[in-house]
Amino acid sequence: PQQQQNHQQQQQQNQLLPNEDGGCSKNGFLCRQSSTRWTPTTEQIRILKDLYYNNGVRSPTADQIQKISAKLRQYGKIEGKNVFYWFQNHKARERQKKRLTTDISAMQRGVWRSDYQESICSTKYPNITSGAPSSSASVGGLHAAGQVGNYGYGSFAMEKSFRDCSISPSGKASGSMFQNFSWAGAGAGAEPYPSPYQFLEKKTCFVETLDDQE
Amino acid sequence: PQQQQNHQQQQQQNQLLPNEDGGCSKNGFLCRQSSTRWTPTTEQIRILKDLYYNNGVRSPTADQIQKISAKLRQYGKIEGKNVFYWFQNHKARERQKKRLTTDISAMQRGVWRSDYQESICSTKYPNITSGAPSSSASVGGLHAAGQVGNYGYGSFAMEKSFRDCSISPSGKASGSMFQNFSWAGAGAGAEPYPSPYQFLEKKTCFVETLDDQE
DNA sequence: ACGATATGAATGAATG
DNA sequence: CATTCATTCATATCGT
């Protein structure tokens, strides 16, 4: 059913080798060095994918991220952000890929159905209430309890293009309300790019310091 | 001081000329700016950060947003919403990092460390009072008058406990977001790569107890 | 080596 | 204010 992630990812399992030479042969100088980006090991990848595909984890919570990273740390250096980004990216790219893959023609013909896109997820998670998870990579009992099926947002992209939220022109801007900015609907038939600072600009008196000497 | 410009920092360096339009002429190279999304120039970033860190601006009001964007417009095309989002994102991300820098396990143990990083507001002027404010980027007398000291709420999540304070006595805590992300700012922490994940490593028998469903 | 691709990281833009 | 989505940059890796 899914074949979108079997290209190349079988690199070595060396986590991070601080053996970087001091010579920044890059374009600048204050470059990389040890700041090499995280390179997931195969074990880490395996676990992550297992969580993703077998446990339906898509956007792990802080708690989950913690557990996951703690777990993955056994296989190499890793930080919470790596896990966070991994899921973000994986989800995003899968969707992106699907967008391109999923016959566009189907969409334009309207024969597109929303059930075949979820095939990759096997939908096995919905009822975690049974008890023992028995998942392959149960990282801290991570079961993606609350988010399963959440991403089933219809399908791919097509309805999220125009999100024009027309807001009511309050006219009064006080505090931190932000929905009454003209930009809320910017482009919704307004000016090309208007100077949006007149809608509430009352221009007090202080004009003394407009120093542009930053 | 809060951005780990190690190597990445993608399109940040493209300096749009003080044009008024989208006329970007970076280095005589590719003008990638034509996209939809705002690409802050370095000057704009600098001012924004200055406002953020030196003036304590966190959630600028419409008024402030106006002034700021007007000011920043000298350095490139910008709209109010860009400013608005910038502050929102900057705050959220800083918070996101920080919020969990004070990892929950420490929190539950009361070992909470109020280790801060930024030089938030220097408690500027409570008002647009007298003469020249010495702030770097005083945008039209924008001094963050009303909100300084507002976020000086000590630190972690405390006012929002109602939402994510699901700390269980069993040593489990369901925070809201990532906890120990040391990535974002690194303004003060700046550890190469911390490994503070043992705090939740206490239980290896984790099996399914992750249910943090509301 | 160079170019293509995969993917980590960052962040603007939204939404709830 | 928290979370998520989309885009884009940067770099690691592989193929030729």
From TrEMBL, chains A, B:
Keywords: Developmental protein, DNA-binding, Homeobox, Nucleus, Transcription, Transcription regulation. Residues 1-15 have a biased composition (Low complexity). Residues 31-97 form the Homeobox domain. Residues 33-98 bind DNA. Residues 1-19 are annotated as: Disordered. Its main location: nucleus. It is found in: Nucleus. Belongs to the WUS homeobox family. This is Protein WUSCHEL-like. The gene is LOC140010472. The chain holds residues 3 to 216 of 285 of the full protein.
